[in-house]
Amino acid sequence: MTSNVQPLPPLQIGEYTIPVPIIQGGMGIRVSANRLASAVANEGGVGLIATVALSLASKHYKKAKDYYRANILALADELEMAREKSPDGIIGTNCMVAIRDFEAMVRASVENGAQMIVSGAGLPLRLPEFTSDHPKTALVPIISSLRAARLMARRWFKLYKRLPDALVFEDPNTAGGHLGAGRSELYSKQHSMEQVLPELAEWSLKEYGDEIPIVTAGGIWDRADIDHALDLGAKGVQMASRFVCTHECDAHENFKTAFLKAARGDVVIVDSPAGLPSRALKTPFIKSLFGGEEVSEKCFASCLSACRCRDEEKAFCIAYALHKSQQGDMKEGLIFTGSNAVRHTEIVHVRDIFEEITGQPSPMRS
Ligand SMILES: Cc1cc2nc3c(=O)[nH]c(=O)nc-3n(C[C@H](O)[C@H](O)[C@H](O)COP(=O)(O)O)c2cc1C
Fold it and tell me: Which pairing describes strands 214-217 and 138-143: parallel, antiparallel, or unpaired?
């Protein structure tokens, strides 16, 4: 293949040189599991297995009391299968601070060979402690402000004498899933990539030289978006929604079809039982929720540290609703999405997306 597209610079995170500076964002409850993560890693990006509630569609989960142990076993399986499919790629996990088995998921990640842990939905202040026996694993917190970035870097250095290997800035105005800004702050310039990314890049360079590359997430779709992000100071991007409509995405076909059918106005903000706003697709579930109907089972997995469904019997069971959509049930299923949901027009291979962006075959195959 000959191409006029300029090569993208590789991204260095800790000891890993990522040939194509794209991290596939973790998508919970088995939307990004071994198939998607290995496909992305085989194209020269970083593939992330999202660890939250991985057990629910696994052979290890039979009933609620198995839930935490089954999550560990399911994660070990996913990491093993991803590694088999991508022996040379960079495979990591996404671990959410807000889940009750955060520490167990982090420990299971490193014990089963994750090369990177990307961690958000709260500040992963103790991440280096949980991974101290595996110093090669790159640790990458997700933050939404310069203030949070400063806090993470200072705290880790003071307590653990180490810095984040990179930081993912997630723009709450465009990203999918749980958002790092309150409802009233959404869509303000103050939290936007255009405002925060250059501040972060300047801070990181001034304070730490090249040691903490900034990766940006939210609303990144094509090469023009990546070039824009690099111009603003990012060294790489994290993309999630773009990878949903791929053959390799681990969710049910109905989940992908919902994106293909999405129209303008179908991306909405929902209050999650975790107490954070989240961005989701308007499925029949959302219509029922907004209509004030009873929408889901009672808490059955006790997955979140703080949960309005479990603790106050309000809201809905998010694990149940996300699991249902992953299984293809749109009536009871909640689908997270970034603002770009409506841009999908067909189901493609991960390879097609990378070749469109880089204009080259995967560096992993050369
Ligand atoms: C279906 C879906 C599930 C997600 N699940 C998680 C998750 O489990 N943990 C997390 O940290 N972020 C999660 N996210 C956020 C993404 O990892 C990513 O940072 C964000 O969506 C980037 O924006 P984009 O979708 O516009 O590319 C999710 C996003 C989507 C679309």
Answer: unpaired
